[in-house]
Design a protein that fits this description.
single chain, 71 residues, mainly alpha, extended
């Protein structure tokens, strides 16, 4: 028997929403803070062990805190 959660997950995979266009990284960051990526991306099709050969350093400093800069 398939659980209700499993049915919902299977249904989500067939009805993915289109990814929005973002004007800036800040706009994209705010969007993903309030939305579930599984509504937009089928993670079961994601590639594993991907290398980002042309990745450049960002000027944004990260400290691991998800609430950094939010009060």
């Amino acid at each position: 028997m398939i659980s209700r959660v499993s049915q919902q997950l299977m249904q989500k995979k067939t009805t993915l929403k289109p990814l929005p266009q973002f004007a800036s990284e800040d706009e994209e960051r705010e969007f993903w803070d309030t939305h579930d990526s599984t509504d937009y991306i089928d993670w079961s099709k994601a590639e594993r062990d991907v290398l980002f050969a042309n990745l450049k350093r960002s000027s944004l400093a990260l400290n691991g805190s998800s609430n950094q800069g939010r009060e």
